[in-house]
Amino acid sequence: MKIVSALRFSLLVCLLVVATAPHAFAQSAKSEVVIPEGYTNDDIVAVYNDLKKNYGPKGEFETQAAYKKRIQSGYKGQVKFFFTKEIYAVMPPAGIGYIYSEYDADKQIVTFKRILKMFDNKVKIRRTQYSNKEYTASNAYGGKALVTSHEGTDYGILIENGSKFNGKIEIQLPPRDAEALKNNFGIMFVCELKPDSKKGYLKDDRTSFEASFSFPESYYFSEHYIRVNVTEVVFFNSQTGVVYSTQKIKT
Hints:
By secondary structure, the protein is mainly beta. The protein has one domain. It is built from 4 helices and 11 strands. The strands form 2 sheets. Strands 1, 2, 5, 6, 8, 9, 10 and 11 form an 8-stranded mixed beta sheet that branches. Strands 3-4-7 form a 3-stranded antiparallel beta sheet, with helices on one face. The protein starts with 10 loop residues before the first strand and ends with a strand.
């Protein structure tokens, strides 16, 4: 099924991106999914780096008018991201925006639940520089535990219009298609760049979680997000590229 969207500035998530003018971002050399016809797969890290280099926050000696002109001078073409179930498997539960909920075989309806709000409308797309190590931790009472420390860098999108999303999405599908979608679902977000009036396109953050004896795992991740408005959500089969449903989102 071919889907073509006409957007002024757009980004598409399941994530990766393509800009038709004036910048052409690096295409992702490896894809874990079959992208639906009409969509493209680009590198979110390349997009982030280009935005950081050319469209950074307002400078101290830059007027608001000059900053606005600079920010609006780029990305006058479609940008598409892709996000897959495979990425969700390595960074649960954040990163996917929606999760598979259930299938009603009698009504033949698949339900996906939205989980954007609990993660501040952030969707993680790609993890890089990941490493982990184990060490023995102890407390003042002589207790010891083997702790695993996880570190890395995550890239994703910050959805500015996240409040416009429905709490759930229902898709009418026969049992065979529903089973295929559950096992191989892909979710794409078609987006428009939404720069902050002073901070620009990007938001950097950091997540840290200290280990405890009840949960001997620690997490330290740098997070880099691109600010967007999502205009459409596409649900598709990540092995075949077949699109099962598209949902329009208000901006």
